[in-house]
Amino acid sequence: MPLRFIAKNEKSGDHGSPTVWVDPETRDFIIQGWKTDPETTADCLAHGPIPDHETVVRIPARMAKALKEALDVAELDQLR
Questions:
Q1: Closest listed residue to residue 22, CA positions, set 5, 9, 10, 34
Q2: What's the number of domains the chain is made of?
Q3: Which residues of 39-53 are buried (b: 16+ CB within 10 A; e: fewer)?
Q4: What residues are paired with 31 via a beta bridge?
Q5: Whole domain around residue 44: which residue ranges?
């Protein structure tokens, strides 16, 4: 089943990022965002390692509505 597109940052132009999707089967969130700067990454590493197969991304606050929608979609799908 294809991912359910939620929203793309309206200020991204043709760059397509950040973007939010929900996997309708697993209700997982798929997030495309900006790579973090070294200082932010260091702050995150202060709480534990980041495995090689993972990364930290930054999503702007203006995407809060999209994240809330993704949460609602995942929650509603869980109730079905």
A1: 5
A2: 1
A3: eeeeeeeeeeeeeee
A4: 20
A5: 4-79
Residue 23: phi and psi, rounded to 5, are: -80, 115
pLDDT in tens, 8-36: 888 777 766 789 999 988 889 999 988 89
- Separation of alpha carbons 16 and 55, rounded Å: 18
Which element (helix H / strand E) includes 71?
helix 64-79
| pTM greater than the 0.90 cutoff | no
**Contact in structure between 22 and 78 (CB atoms under 8 Å):** no
Number of Cβ within 10 Å of residue 24's Cβ equals 15
Q: Distance between CA atoms of 27 and 18, rounded to whole angstroms?
A: 19
Q: What share of the chain is helix, strand, coil (3-state, %, to 5)?
A: 40, 20, 40
